[in-house]
Amino acid sequence: MKKEKWLFQTSNMPYDPDTVKNGLRMKKKLYSGSSIYQKIEVYDTLPFGKILVLDGIFQTSEKEEFIYHEMLSHPALFYCANPKKVLIIGGGDGGVLEEVLKHPVEKVWLVEIDKKVIEVAKKYLPSISKGAFEDKRVELVIGDGVKFIKNYKNFFDVIILDLSDPWGPARKVISLKFYQGVKGALKKNGTISVQGGCLFSQLKLASLVFHRLKRVFSSVIIHKAPVLLYDIGELNFTVASDVNLKKITFKQIERKFKKLNLDLRYYRPKIHFASAVLPKYLMRELKIK
Ligand code: SAM
Prior knowledge:
- There is one protein chain.
- The protein is of the alpha/beta class.
- The chain has helices at about 65-80, 95-100, 115-125, 125-130, 145-150, 175-185, 205-215, 250-260, 270-275, 280-285, and strands at about 5-10, 25-35, 40-45, 50-55, 55-60, 85-90, 105-110, 140, 155-160, 185-200, 220-225, 235-240.
- The protein is built from 10 helices and 12 strands.
- The structure holds S-adenosylmethionine.
């Protein structure tokens, strides 16, 4: 009888003890290589189809990438009155880029430190970017997002941080200094969206991201959704702005959603608001009043 092959996520995340190790029934390893920044692998798995793995950490899957990419993009884009200039830092798989380009934006900058990730993702997981890198509104920059934002002041309407967990090339991206730099590059009424960790096994990280953003922006809201590839518990997508996000009504979001008539599989106005309702125990765990 053929021996089953299993793929386990190996990690020793900073901030939270490594208590959960999820394994996937594997069909085949499709690619394995390294760049100067990280180990890059692609596997074909039974539950999630093809998945991208960086330094042993599951990044995205063909099967359910739309939940993560829609929830990291659309709440911030719908909170923003009329996003025209959008910056994505990280996001080398192209999933967030594909979602942003569904909006009538003028230009999108994607700043990815590792061009090998883009090459591998385009070759083995084309269903995630769906040709978004070829859109003429896209400016692709291979470089460190931490350095890139220093060149911009009061420029972007929306900034999306689609970064791997804060270690390796991404270790500086949850620093207060970085968030202050991101605010400087953002227009006064702009919004930023951050992947803030898993709301079960990464509560320390999630709380740190929330409270650091709270020190830089006057309005910070956690949206949550199940990203099944990563972990048990929901993932948090934290949106921050100096616009009072809590004042933006269901009617406003619904009117914009109907007008744009986007083809989405997860995000919609009711999800926008339902995903921002945190149960009491989580508010306590995250020390949110
Ligand atoms: N969804 C994934 C997650 O939540 O873990 C993130 C996916 S995306 C592939 C992460 C990307 O961030 C990687 O391609 C990595 O190379 C890129 N990255 C890490 N640090 C970076 C930095 N300082 N500047 C730009 N890109 C960076």
